[in-house]
Amino acid sequence: MSRTKKKITQADLKPPDLNQCQADKREGGPFSFMTLGPIPPLKRCTNKPSVLVKEIKPGKDGLMGSMTLCKDCFVQFCMLECPTRDQYEFEEIK
Length: 94
Description:
The chain is globular and about 40 Å long. The strands form two sheets. The protein has a three-stranded antiparallel beta sheet. It is built from one helix and five strands; from the N terminus they run E-E-E-E-H-E. The chain has 94 residues and is an alpha+beta fold.
């Protein structure tokens, strides 16, 4: 069974949500190679956002977007993406 990713278009991008973090998390904890059975589904984080992340250069998909992240998801984003100031702008949400 092969999985193909849907090509993202500008119309697919959602505006930043200032009321809820826009990160998707694995429901029931992160996936582990020790887990038997199917991969847990993704569920949107329900925390209040604290940072607005804006792409200032097109990403791998060729598009520029922005999203809000809570503190925990922002830490994960920084660990996974290793963002630099020439790729993204960060704005604190108060």
